[in-house]
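Researcher: I'd like a structural prediction for the single chain below. Treat it as a standalone chain; there are no partners to consider.
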Amino acid sequence: MQDAYSKENSMEPTPVLYIGNVAVRNRVLLAPMAGVTDAPFRRLVSQLGAGLVISEMTASDALIAGRRNAVLRTEGQGTGTHVVQLAGCEPHWMAEGARIAEGSGAKIIDINMGCPAKHVANRQSGSALMRDLDHALSLIEATVGAVAVPVTLKMRLGWDERSINAPELARRAQDTGVRMITVHARTRRQFYTGAADWALVRAVKDRISVPLVINGDIRSFDDADAAFNASGADAVMVGRAAQGRPWFPGQLASYLESGRCEPAPPLATQFALIIALYEEMLAHHGLRIGLRHARKHLGWALDAAAATGGVARETLKRWRGTVLTGETPADVRARLAQAYDAFACGAAA
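Model: Treating it as a single chain, here is the predicted structure.
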């Protein structure tokens, strides 16, 4: 999957961040995103220079049961330091899930206490755990005690604006043995609406000595600077801004080290990246699921390509419809090539 662009951006610098005894090569992490950060996508983002990539959230009980989708989510070959994020509401199952993940090669276990989705929160997992910190700590304690690798924690500011308890949870989690804290700077009630309040995360930094990662609304180089300044965080985590732009975390890492703002790669490089990702997704998920799963990535890639080429909204909409209705891999590849050719012609015009 690597070309000259990715090789240039995947050189190994001196580590600038440690999670326990695990060295991280830079200060930019890829967020775990359900249905997005599968192994092929994580491999690509890692090869393009992200410091650390985290698996999709995986239910601990599903992993223990050996369900195929859970096992696939925890695959980490070629993704750099292998990080598995687990979710659950029972200490025993979290501990057992962590043992299985560690046994399969995970070098870090991340606990999800930030997912706002109703089907997760209604099962008293994810961000719902921030409503009962004693119970949340019992899950953390069980997970930390089950494995030899570092355990990290991802959370939100709190359940709602009246219960901003991230500083307390972070301190107690650190005291229980968690080696890094990530805070998405929104409450659960906000979901992904409104603006992330990076300044509120400063109170978390003041309560802990382990590395702090800031997450939420980091879409540009300027956003990263502002998030660091407001929060005092040690690293940033990029989520939706990497959708269709797998190169962005690596570019951001380079910017933080050198101060150089790199443009999006040329359309020819973007095309090569999405074609390689498409092929890997089909192989990873199987043809039936892979075709459906890859569509959102193709759509995001077209959005990014249109932005690079300065393509009009109506032109993008037309090509999106053409590519995303392809019924076979060969059809999709051909239509995608035509779309990128059209975008390139439009940019040159």
